[in-house]
Design goal:
The chain is mainly beta and 223 residues long. It is built from 2 helices and 15 strands. It folds into 2 domains: 96 residues, SH3 type barrels; 117 residues, no CATH class. Strands 14-13-12-9-15 form a 5-stranded antiparallel sheet, covered by helices on one side. It has a 4-stranded antiparallel sheet with strand order 2-5-6-7.
Amino acid sequence: MYTNYATVRLAKITESGVGRSNNARIINSQGNFTNKYIKKDSKIVIDRTSDRVSLAGSMDILGLSNSYMEVFRLKNNKQQFVLRADIKKSSIPRQVILPYSNFTSVRIIRKSPIYNIHGIQDSDSAFPTIAEGHETDVKSLRYIWVPSLNKAELFYEGTEFYKDAEFKYIKASDVEYLFGKHLTPVNTATDVTPINTAVDVTPKKTILISPAFKISHLSSCKY
């Protein structure tokens, strides 16, 4: 069962606190820690759950600060988040807080190989595929020429990779949409050829999903 918001209490000893005050440090909409704080042991109202990778759009966020990733958004504030680890455990609601992402959330519906921009599957890394059922965020949609198939296929660019990672694309046919922005391909199938494998065109305006649709869709999802 989902809930739209909840009142929680910050811990007396926070994970993000600095110095004697140990107040909870605020995280911005890009997943970075700010120089703003909320007094420890105070009550706050939260309305969404997310993680710093979903806010940042890449795994590079891991190298910027501590390893705590999950966050809650301050109610009706798209610019301020707090670490879940900074909240007193006994005050966290049993109901599921609605998820939030700066990108598009999808679920892998079959074991999905990871590709590079040239349509070549990853065969060297420890994790060359993404498991069925895994939920992840994607941030762009494009056609890529796949040499093994001798045709262009539609791919999503995932966020659970470093920005300079070579292999970070998954087939659109291997996922199902959960919530967030509806992405428009930045190119067409006719743009990419065996010689010209990565052509972009000016992307069209992103279509946003209404909050009412998100809630309706999420309540029908099985987690």
